[in-house]
Specification:
The structure is a single chain. By secondary structure, the protein is of the alpha/beta class. The chain has 3 domains: 5-35 and 66-183 and 218-397, no CATH class; 186-217, no CATH class; 421-595, Glucose Oxidase, domain 1 (3-Layer(bba) Sandwich). It has 21 helices and 14 strands. The chain is globular, with a radius of gyration of 24 Å.
Length: 601
């Protein structure tokens, strides 16, 4: 199928908007690439330090005879998703040696778990950890001794931070290496019910803990379709994974074979060989459009709205919120994975997964096929799935038919004709809402607001029965400059209870929700934030707000609001404790959320 004219038109708009910044970026990358292998420019003393622990491979490194792969790892064994990375460096080094190359761990990057920090003060560091990861990767690669890189990371801010750094070092080839999702545990809808029962006081903490431990029970990513798994989808749609690598479980022979192949492929795509594929050429305008189409078709995480803008800027591409809207209108929703449905990512993968989706979207003309990928082919390679045949890794055509149409459908028979995200605009500012999990009867809500400055205040009001009515909860001063823009997913159980009691309820905030944003309508990432001149700072209890996801409207209908003086909160408590002292400069310099909320880009 020829490319859909709408996709072509949106891509051209992005290309024209990005012409100046993309051209300057590529010129920098070409100049650095022309310097040749990185190690050639190091003095003898520099090289001796870099190779001191490399044993018999020192000679090859000094002579520039073999590629040297830099491994950047986000391993820690507190994150279930990253625990499998413990043994990856040794495996990668062995695979590199077998392919005639060397590999070194260039450095580690921090990786925090938003599941641990949900509703806690540590969540105020979460978004900024993306920029810290980019900076730490920059330090790792600054030794200038590598011909390509393997990036080991999965979860919420880790992949975006690694992509920002990979684009900054875009003259280097790079492959992203996943570890896969944990096996299925307690179904996500059952877990959500237990959380609601606990919020209502129907069960105690012991039952809640039992359910949580049965849900998050082993190595691998959480199995719902949140930010971590949206990241993995994105890396495949953008050609930075090996085809079909995203959702293979940890500790399986196929997972090991894919890791070995990533190391082998990283040796082939360096400038020392004939298949030089620098990241700067992979991350062009077409790749970013493909990533956005994937986000819309799968009903992916709202966090990616922030991250994609920041990630693209690092490659010289200027995405705007309007691009998300335009591609959402163009892209059908093909998947129902929790919280958009009952299935988890393992069920999604079994139903056909990403090879099925990419194949059908290519046939529908909704993806660019003619892109560079780390696989060395166009995007059609990602309509294949990896298999082991006689202990040999091969790729075969992906499934043509969905194995479960309650989970996965074709573009011709989608769950809904448009994507899972919607931009919101009005006098309250600009925000985003995830509507793929929200029932149509909740797409339009007009109600008095209740204004809060902390999650604790919202929870206290819920327990006191003050939210048992039609209400739009406004939680302000949660933006990047106020307190680091924490996720507010801990409010979901309480607001879900209000909704289930038959009331119309919505959340409006300049903070974030989660990749697991659920069935309660939420206008999030509202910009400008309350601390930065946003109208949210002037709202009072009882002001009437209209949330209209059908038309994309977010507005205060009460007259005279603009003339009020803004509330000036006491935010001093946000500046200390749990390491927040160290991030004052980040809060002062963070960009607007509709521009990626970045510090380094």
């Amino acid at each position: 199928m020829p490319l859909d004219a709408r996709i072509d038109r949106i891509t051209d708009t992005i290309r024209e908007r990005s012409h100046e910044t993309r051209s300057a970026y590529l010129a920098r990358m070409r100049a650095q690439a022309e310097e040749g292998p990185r190690r050639a420019h190091l003095d003898c003393g520099n090289q001796a330090h870099a190779y001191a622990a490399m044993g018999e491979q020192k000679g090859d490194l000094v002579a520039d005879r073999v590629p040297n792969i830099g491994i950047v790892t986000a391993y820690n064994d507190m994150l279930s998703a990253h625990q499998p990375f413990k043994d990856y460096p040794d495996r990668i080094k062995a695979a590199a040696r077998a392919a005639g190359a060397t590999a070194q761990v260039a450095g580690g990057v921090p990786a925090m778990c938003d599941g641990v920090t949900q509703g806690q003060k540590g969540m105020e560091l979460s978004l900024f950890s993306r920029d810290v990861i980019a900076l730490a990767t920059g330090v790792a690669l600054s030794h200038n001794t590598f011909d390509s890189a393997l990036y080991l990371g999965i979860c919420d801010k880790i992949v975006p931070g690694l992509v920002i750094a990979a684009a900054t070092f875009g003259y280097l080839p790079g492959i992203f290496v996943p570890a896969g999702p944990m096996t299925s545990g307690l179904p996500n809808d059952e877990k959500a019910k237990v959380r609601r029962d606990f919020a209502e006081g129907k069960i105690g903490r012991e039952k809640l803990m039992e359910a949580e431990m049965a849900s998050y029970h082993g190595p691998g990513t959480c199995t719902f379709y949140g930010t971590a798994n949206s990241n993995q989808m994105l890396m495949e749609f953008m050609g930075l994974h090996l085809p079909g690598a995203s959702f293979v479980n940890p500790g399986t022979p196929l997972r090991d074979a894919l890791t070995d192949e990533a190391a082998r492929r990283a040796t082939e795509i360096t400038a020392l060989g004939n298949a030089y594929t620098p990241v700067c050429d992979v991350l062009d305008e077409k790749a970013w459009v493909n990533g956005l189409v994937g986000l819309m078709a799968t009903g992916g995480s709202t966090n990616l709205v922030l991250h994609l803008i920041a990630m693209a800027r690092a490659s010289g591409v200027q995405l705007t919120c309007g691009d998300f809207d335009a591609l959402s209108e163009t892209t059908p929703l093909m998947a129902r994975v929790y919280p958009n449905g009952l299935a988890d990512v393992n069920h999604f993968h079994a139903a056909g997964g990403l090879p099925y989706m990419i194949g059908h979207l290519l046939e529908a003309g909704l993806l660019h096929e003619d892109v560079q990928t780390v696989a060395g082919q166009g995007l059609s390679a990602y309509a294949q799935e990896p298999k082991l045949k006689d202990d040999r890794l091969v790729w075969e055509p992906g499934p043509r038919e969905s194995q479960n149409e309650k989970i996965l459908r074709s573009p011709e028979d989608p769950f809904q004709p448009t994507g899972g995200l919607k931009q919101m605009r009005g006098n309250l500012g600009h925000g985003v809402t995830k509507i793929s999990a929200v029932a149509p009867e909740h797409h339009v809500i007009e109600a008095p607001c209740a204004v809060f400055h902390s999650q604790e205040e919202v929870k206290a009001a819920f327990k006191a029965g003050e939210l048992d009515r039609d209400v739009i909860v406004v939680l302000r001063f949660q933006g990047p400059r106020a307190n680091g823009m924490p996720e507010l997913h801990a409010l979901t159980p309480a607001l879900s209870v209000v909704q289930q009691r038959g009331h119309k309820v919505a959340l409006v905030t300049d903070g974030r929700m989660s990749g697991a944003s659920g069935k309660v309508p939420s206008a999030i990432h509202v910009a400008p934030e309350a601390l930065d001149g946003g109208l949210l700072a002037k709202l009072r209890d009882g002001d009437v707000i209209r949330y209209d996801a059908t038309e994309g409207v977010l507005a205060c209908l009460t007259e005279g609001v603009e003339a009020r003086e803004p509330v000036v909160p006491d935010l001093s408590a946000n500046s200390h404790g749990i390491g927040r002292e160290l991030f004052e400069v980040f809060r002062q310099t963070a960009g607007r959320s509709d521009r990626g909320a970045g510090v380094v880009v």
